Amino acid sequence: MAHLLFKDVNKVYPNGYHAVHDFNMEIKDGEFICLVGDSGCGKSTTLRMIAGLEDITAGEFYIDGVLANQMSSRDRGIAMVFQSYALYPHLTVYENLGFGLTLEGIDADVIDEKVKQTAKILGLTEYLERFPRNLSGGQCQRVAVGRALIRKVNIFLMDEPLSNLDAKQRVTMRSEIKQIHRSVGATTIYVTHDQTEAMTMSDRIVVMKSGGYVQQIGTPYELYFHPRNLFVAGFIGEPPMNFIKGVVENGKIKVGETDVDLAPVVKNVKEIEGKEVVFAFRPEAVKLPEEKKRVAKSAEGASAAPKGYTLTSKVDLTELLGDTTNVYANIGDVNVILKVNPHNTPETGTEFKFFVPYEAAYVYDCETELAVESDLKRH
């Protein structure tokens, strides 16, 4: 395992492009960290700086307390899994797995034992004599992971390793990589553009924005329930969070035809009086009137009944997904997405009401794009 520390790490290319700005983070022994963000946000560049494949322009990077800025890749105790698998097409699975150990001059008997042990962990035993061209995408990816795993290093780096797989293979490989991490215990930094991968696999997530700016670092729970700014709120969650702009007047904003009182969801509504803000809620947080009534009826006492906002919208179209239905609607001139019970889906073209609990509502300052402070318990 390894402990990593970044202090004001920056990457500026010779053409002046500033790819990573003031990256600061401490990664504990054995943590699984995901770097997520849109294209060009600097996540792969950050990974390559950890690997020693890119020079650090400014700042300090430490591995187990040792300054690693000028340390060679060979001395960093790192194994990397690439998006393209990077397997040798003329070598069998057995030879691909053992190639790195062969270069290190390790005895053939030891290599044979390690290859067979790694193949067993990854379910590759029956494919050891096959060539990469005879494997599926998921099997090739397991070989790539195995080639890194077999070296018994302290740090695993993975650069979008599942992006070439189909949806079913990605789900399978996500669980396999997580199980491998638990069994091996190596510190793992995983780059992906897929926030679902990040949410399901990581101990903590680093959300980055175009230009190499870190927006928030936290657990999947923290990022989902406590997004600190508009970018994180819109990036984490599928479908994305709904945003409705309005100017605060007498502590309220207009959401369609409804006057929404912000006092129940912000700590001090007077501080945002006269400002333009964003009223936000997640698609899956809404309830239809019948559901609200059922919750209230089953609640223990009137005080336990849900409290929130009742909003009116018009349905544009619906998408049945099986367990839920996506409802694409509009509130005034603002488009929103709602996830509702498939057995209680409103019809296209109809007007309907839905309920947003106070604890599911967020408010962001349009000028700073930061969340307005709230005392609500999010769940």
Helix and strand layout, with pairings?
Blueprint: E1 4-12, E2 18-27, E3 32-37, H1 43-51, E4 58-63, E5 66-67, E6 78-81, H2 93-103, H3 108-122, H4 137-149, E7 155-159, H5 167-184, E8 187-192, H6 195-201, E9 204-209, E10 213-218, H7 220-225, H8 230-235, E11 242-247, E12 252-255, E13 258-261, E14 276-281, H9 289-298, E15 308-320, E16 325-331, E17 334-340, E18 351-357, E19 361-365
Could you please describe the fold and organization of this structure?
The protein has 379 residues and is an alpha+beta fold. 25% of the residues lie in helices and 31% in strands. It is built from nine helices and 19 strands. It has helices at residues 43-51, 93-103, 108-122, 137-149, 167-184, 195-201, 220-225, 230-235, 289-298; strands at residues 4-12, 18-27, 32-37, 58-63, 66-67, 78-81, 155-159, 187-192, 204-209, 213-218, 242-247, 252-255, 258-261, 276-281, 308-320, 325-331, 334-340, 351-357, 361-365. The strands form five sheets. Strands 6-7-8-3-9-10 form a six-stranded mixed sheet, sandwiched between helices. Helix 2 runs parallel beside helix 4. The longest helix is centred in the middle third of the chain and has 18 residues, at 167-184.
